[in-house]
Amino acid sequence: MAKQDYYQILGVDQNAAAKKIKEAYRELAFKYHPDRNEKNPDSAEMMKAVNEAYAVLSNVEKRRAYDSMRNRFGDNAYGQFRNAYTEQDIFNGSDVQQIFEEMARSFGLRGVDSIFGDFYGSGYKRFEFKQHGLHGKGFVYRGGFGKHRRKATEGISSPGVGRFAKYLFQKVTGLSLPQIGEDIRDTIHLTPEFARSGGPYPYNHHRRSKKLVVSIPAGTKDGQQIRLSQMGAAGKNGGPSGDLYLKVKFKKPFLEKAKDFIVSALSR
User: Do 168 and 188 fall within a single domain?
Assistant: First the structure.
């Protein structure tokens, strides 16, 4: 498992453009689609692998984090990445399901409802309602290909959705509305030299008990904020996580610190 590599799974190189990555995923998803592999028990594992690889490499920030780990840890990058990101983190915001639906329309294959219903059984539920001026639709599923388990939902749309809307939604669907997690803010201290050159920076995410490798852009300024999408507090009821904002502060040399201390002491 330590030797697994997302680029190799999709058959693309590290510099592949987003369009190339999507094309490679479409081809492999069609190749390993369950409807075309009823007699191949290994196809489900391959589908799981290409789904995960595409979900990471099609997301700019996740791909950047994976590339940093790949440059730093080489063949062990996959293991490091999976320690830092849960399956829900990986698949949040992915268009995997949309591509499944496109294949269903183009080639007459089963779509998301049928495929995921087989995989998850009663754990998968689609809903839609229109009542009292509210329109809600979406899906909830718990599970994944093989051992993967995650949730996904679409919210309800309406002008001024409040408590009554939430109550009605829960009463009609038997589900709770997803809630976005809170943003988390922290400060990291860098030397001006490192900020100018940029590179991977190890960050201990205490709130989520994770060790991350943050890609610091070259030319980062003192006071600049770096946003890590969906690495904030976890959402509720299948909602996405909030964001993590890291504020950069430059470390001062010892003599400059001493000077500041003396000036501060004399001004009292």
Answer: no
Residue 151's CB is within 10 A of a number of other CB atoms, namely: 19
CB within 8 Å of 130: residues ≥ 6 apart? 136
For residue range 114-153, what is the model confidence (pLDDT) as tens digits?
555 554 444 444 545 455 455 554 444 444 433 333 333 3
Phi-psi region for residue 153, left (φ > 0), alpha (ψ -120 to 50) or beta? Answer: beta
**CATH at residue 12:** 1.10.287.110
Q: Is the pTM of this model over 0.90?
A: no
State the DSSP string of 154-220: --EE-TT--HHHHHHHHHHHS-PPPBPPPPEEEEEEE-HHHHHH-EEEEEEEGGGTEEEEEEEPTTP
**pLDDT band of 230, cuts 50, 70, 90:** confident
Q: Do 210 and 161 reside in the same domain of the chain?
A: no
Residue at a domain's end among 128, 147, 173 = 173
More confident residue, 133 or 161: 133
Per residue in 201-216, pLDDT tens?
Answer: 999 998 888 888 898 9
**160 is a domain residue:** yes
Instruction: Write the secondary structure of 9-62 as one string of H (helix), E (strand) and C (coil).
Output: HHCCCCCCCHHHHHHHHHHHHHHCCHHHCCCCCCHHHHHHHHHHHHHHHCCHHH
Nearest CA-CA partner of 6 in 60, 75, 92: 75
> Structural domain tally of the chain?
3
pLDDT at position 247 is 94
User: Residue 65: inside a domain, yes or no?
Assistant: yes
Domain of 134, in residue numbers: 120-173
